[in-house]
Amino acid sequence: MGETEAGIRFGIIGCANIARKVGRAINLAPSSVLYAIGSRSLEKAKQFADANGLAESVKIYGSYDEVVQDPSVDAVYIPLPTSVHVEWAVKAASNKKHVLIEKPTAMDGAQLELILEACQSNGVQFMDGSMWLHHPRTLKIKDMLFDSKLLGDVKYIYCTSTLLASPEFLENDIRVKAELDGLGVVGDLGWYCLGAVLWAKNYELPTLVTALPDVIKNSNGVILSCSASIQYGQPSAETVAIVHCSFLSNTSMDLTVTGCGGTLNLRDFIIPFQENTASFEFTKGAKFVELHVGWNVKPEQVVVESQLPQEALMVEEFARLIRGITESAFPPDPKWPEISRKTQMLVDAINKSIHLGCKPVYF
Fold first, then answer.
1. Cβ atoms within 10 Å of 69's Cβ, excluding its own
2. Quick one: angle between helices 189-200 and 335-355, nearest 10?
3. pLDDT category of residue 5 using cuts at 50, 70 and 90
4. What pLDDT score does 4 carry?
5. Closest of 128, 124, 125, 130 to residue 96, by C-alpha
6. In what order do the strands lie in the sheet with 32-38?
7. Which helix (H) or strand (E) holds 335?
8. Domain spans, the chain
9. PANTHER family, per this entry (predicted)?
10. Could you say which DSSP state residue 330 is in?
């Protein structure tokens, strides 16, 4: 197995809507190429290829097994329902394929550990599909938070990820089906919020997580909307985070990080308003003027350009790591599995808190 002159050869198993976006990203990334697509039927795979204008050179398979067993495939992207992630990620890793998997990574932490163990024992790279982490805006903010320390110690984080789902979505989408994606909105949109909290705390685990009593479920018991508080420090809170995720309200992707010395605000942290540029607001040293009739400073808008879409940058980073493994015998980068592991831990904690009647879950 090895890359072609065109780059790392990706196979996609499953024709979910997100596969269209990532398939485009694979072809946009300079170091990769879409080599194969597989579905549960050959007809469905052909329809996907036609609808997305895939090159005639792309292999079309009528099963997932054919993709993961193809010796020419270097990496497999898995956009399947969460309930079958562990089966197909383990199969891919066992066939020495590097694994790029959609979030949520698994139904729970125990399943994720099976995936990570398969990747580690087979020497392949693992990464989940949290695209926003690869945007240059995210890297710019990371520098301000941790390298330049312009915000000081982080004290408060507020994060939302919501969308107003259609009646058809709420009836038929896999994300509201207990047998397919039983984590519901917590695993889907909530993954971003929980990942953002961890990111803003440099992946330090919290002291406790508490689901708030605003949980809404459908008739199958799948969570459609919920909020949670996340606390660092006990008994006094060093940092508090509030997250809200919902399929029942207008689209929002807000992230606010407030430290001792400044505040960052984003309104589009998951998917930027525009593909080639993104911005955020930064306020430092804010105080009220005399009589509290205004502020002494206005937020500064920082604009960050991007040469490639963030999903293509994600694929490019993944391909870079694969080249390091195959060409230089580097070990797989443990950073990405650890990010997924900690995010999954927070998803599990919220679900446990909800099950306990919104009681705190301690780490």
1. 15
2. 120
3. low
4. 52
5. 124
6. 59-61, 32-38, 8-13, 75-78, 98-101, 126-128
7. helix 335-355
8. 8-130, 133-310+344-362
9. NAD(P)-BINDING ROSSMANN-FOLD SUPERFAMILY PROTEIN (PTHR46368:SF5), PTHR46368
10. P
Rounded alpha-carbon distances, angstroms, from residue 335 to 49, 69, 128, 266, 321:
33, 27, 11, 25, 11
Q: Name the phi and psi angles at 306, rounded to 5.
A: -135, 125
Q: Is 37:57 a contact under the CB 8 Å cutoff? A: no
**What CATH number has the domain spanning 8-130?**
3.40.50.720
Give CA–CA dist 340/253, Å, rounded.
20
* 209 vs 229: CA distance, rounded Å: 6
Contact (Cβ atoms closer than 8 angstroms) between residue 12 and residue 35:
no
The token duo for 27 is: 């072809």
In angstroms, the Cα distances linking 88 to 76, 98, 131, 187, 275 are 10, 12, 21, 18, 31
Enumerate residues 6+ apart whose C-beta is below 8 A from 185. Answer: 175, 223, 224, 225, 226, 245, 246, 247
State whether residue 99 is helix, strand or coil: strand
CATH of domain 133-310+344-362: 3.30.360.10
Query: Binning pLDDT at 50, 70 and 90, where does residue 232 land?
Result: very high
Q: CA angle, 192 as apex, 54 and 12 as ends, to 5°?
A: 25
- Which amino acid is it at 202? N
Beta bridge partners of residue 266, listed in sequence order:
255
